[in-house]
Amino acid sequence: MTSYKRAIGCIASGVVIYPALLVGAVVTLVPFGLGLLTSITSARQFNTESPLSLPTPPTLANYFGLAEAGFGRALVVTALVTAVVTVGQLTFSVLAGYAFARLEFRGRDTLFWLYVATLMVPATVMVVPLYLMMAEAGLRNTFWALVLPFVFGSPYAIFLLREYFRTIPDDLIRAARIDGANTMDVIFHVVLPASRPILVTLALITVVSQWNNFMWPLVITSGDTWRVLTVATAGLQSRYDAQWTLVMAATTVAIVPLIGLFVVLGRHIVRSIIVTGLK
């Protein structure tokens, strides 16, 4: 009888859960689908017919228009900024996270929690001080102005790595010390191999946040030289009289690399969640 009730319960929960998940998936994916359809629709058809109508015929004119508008340079700048910030974030966050997790020094915990407390400060509050610092240093509208505020780690990244590093067994680190390994050897040959899933997750989070960063690039740069994707996409709405087919093409170009990255690294993210939960 118990098994029968359990089977009925599983069936009932499946009847409720799976349709709900399907509805959620549709609500999430439909805007992306409409954006893709709009990007291959001619501006004339979009302005004269329903936005839900299929493109007849599909066209790549909007993507060629992006090339003529210099969108390719914004794509290269964004990729370069994202790569530099991601490498810097991982490097400095790993070093700081290990120091806070494994090294003993006076005021370690106080300093750590004071640093983590800066997560409570809204990012917009820091825009004006950062702008003044960059302007005084003569870095306004430069590549370094885009990366310096983010390249030296972040409270979230250091907190995440510190908590993960504390779960690594002490016996592994002691064994490395006995074999004559110094601190850097322990980090590169013991800690990092054991932390690959969480590092991949942190890298993906950093890439997404920097790829979609809008406020700081908008404030610190001007002109086309160091314009990033988000600013370039926003500029299309005013420069080309809100041609939404062009804007949707730009949005599609910006989204595709992130989707591809998630498809490639998705299994590592799931693994990091499972490992973190078990530990």
Would you give an account of this structure?
This protein has helices at residues 2-39, 43-48, 61-68, 71-102, 108-116, 127-136, 143-151, 155-165, 170-178, 183-194, 196-211, 215-220, 229-239, 244-278. The chain has 279 residues and is mostly helical. The chain has two domains: 2-39; 69-278, MetI-like fold. The longest helix has 38 residues, at 2-39. The chain starts with a helix and ends with a helix. The model has no long low-confidence stretch (mean pLDDT 83).
Concise overview:
The protein is mainly α. It is built from 14 helices and no strands.
Kindly list the characteristics that best describe this protein.
MetI-like fold; mainly alpha; MetI-like; 279 residues
| Tally of DSSP helical segments | 14
Q: Let me know the CATH homologous superfamily of the largest domain.
A: MetI-like
Order of helices and strands: HHHHHHHHHHHHHH
The CATH topology assignment of the largest domain is MetI-like fold
Radius of gyration: 24 Å
CATH class of the largest domain: Mainly Alpha
- Structural class category: mainly alpha
Envelope shape: globular
Can you tell me the CATH architecture of the largest domain? Answer: Orthogonal Bundle
Report how far apart the termini are.
36 Å
Count the domains: 2
Helix content: over 70%
Biggest sheet: strands, sense, closure? none
Low-confidence segments:
none
How many strand units? Answer: 0
**In percent, how much strand structure appears in the residues?**
under 5%
